[in-house]
Amino acid sequence: MRTERNLTRLDRVFARLDREPERPANIDVPKMSRHRVVLFAATLAFYLAIVWLVVTTSWLVRFDWQVMFFRPYQQWAGIHWFVDYYVVLGQRGPTAVMVAAWLGWRSWRQHTLRPLLTLGTLLLLLNITVGAAKLGMGRLGPHYATVIGSNEMGLGGDIFPSGHTANAVVTWGILAYLASTPAARRWLSAASAVTSLGVGLATVYLGTHWLSDVLLGWAAGLLVLLALPWCEPLIALAETRIFDLRDRWRARRGGTAPAPAPAPVTAPVLLKPRASASGDEVPAARETVTASRSARPPAHLAPGPHTTRSERTPVTPIGSRRPPHPDRVARGTTPATATARPATGG
After folding, report:
1. How many beta carbons lie within 10 A of that of residue 63, not counting itself?
2. Is residue 174 within 8 Å of 118, Cβ to Cβ?
3. pLDDT tens-digit map of 108-162
4. How far apart (Å, rounded) are the C-alpha atoms in residues 59 and 53?
5. Is residue 192 a contact partner of residue 172, using CB atoms and an 8 Å limit?
6. What is the model's pTM?
7. Quick check: 274 pLDDT over 90?
């Protein structure tokens, strides 16, 4: 009795890798649903609340100073080496290269540029929003603080909000955003949330950011992710334009011009009737447009000289059951002498 071996998860993964690249029939593109709009509005309100609490030097600023004086890197010095490596998960360069490599492979397998274009759009939005907030508020970090208890705003710093935290939210959150199944989206969302949370706390442990910087960085990264469905039409348009340029370049390289666009269909023009010499109106003849065709011999004629049908000698087909008629006269000719059939009496 022959039994088939059950495929393990690793076997299924390698079987999927061996398949030819193909574009999925239906690519799930998240839309700006009502739930997402409500979550975006709540995150924006949280963002503005953190900024207001820091600008007004409220209890959140005092708590920032208490955490700084606690000096976590001295209290738990044994994990300092691990935190130094873990915080790299929030740095722009290494994380962008890793995620871009994965999304580039997905783009090749699915014959679509959407993963890479989505990553580029996210990083562009992140640089604009977070960079503008950093330069606009100019807050100094804990290591460069000047006055105890102050918010250190407007002094030329660039740490509010935390770029490491916002980058971790966006870079790892895009994997959940581009997931192909709901289950994978849930697992990747949880993993990206834990990773970005750990990166933010790692910066507080090392003393490079205030706790309020991390809170604002989480909100900034989440706002970029939530607003991404608004950019999907532009991403689809950019993908179409890039594929059009690729097709034109291939056509130019191959020496064949791309197919011209079909001419637009216009409404028919009504011709006015022309007047005759007697003054009566004569309806104009309808013009017919025929496509020009190159003159060539009919395809059913064999090459060589051809004779008219009357000049051909009658030929009895091979295998015909009809008996031959020696007295048959070729069509179109007159016999020299007419033969009369004998009359039979009956």
Report:
1. 14
2. yes
3. 888 888 999 999 999 999 999 999 999 999 999 998 888 888 999 988 888 999 9
4. 8
5. yes
6. 0.66
7. no
Please identify which residue in the block is written with the tokens 């540029």.
113
Alpha-carbon span 104 to 46, nearest angstrom:
34
Q: What is the per-residue DSSP string for 265-333?
A: P-PPPPPPPEE-TTS-EEPPPPP-----------TTSPSS----GGGSPP-PPTT--SPP-TTPPPTT-
Residue with tokens 């994990």: 79
Which tokens hold the place of 276? 């005759």
Which structure tokens are listed for 281?
Answer: 């109106």
Answer for the pair 162, 209: CB distance below 8 angstroms, yes or no.
yes
DSSP string, 138-162: -PPPGGG--STTS--TTSS---SS-
pLDDT, tens digit, 9 for 90 and up, residues 93-102:
889 999 999 9
Q: Which two tokens mark 20?
A: 């030819």
Which residue is it, tokens 């950093």? 134
Beta bridge partners of 282: 274
Q: Name which of 70, 53, 219, 55 is nearest 142 in CA terms.
A: 70
Q: What is the largest CA-CA distance in the chain?
A: 148
What lies within 8 Å, CB to CB, of 203 at 6+ separation is 87, 90, 162, 164, 165, 209, 213, 214
CA distance 153 to 226: 28
* Sequence-separated (6 or more) residues with CB below 8 Å from residue 211: 60, 63, 64, 67, 204
CB atoms within 10 A of CB 44: 15
Cα angle 211-209-57, degrees, rounded to a multiple of 5: 55
Q: Among 192, 188, 153, 195, which residue's Cα sits nearest to residue 60?
A: 153
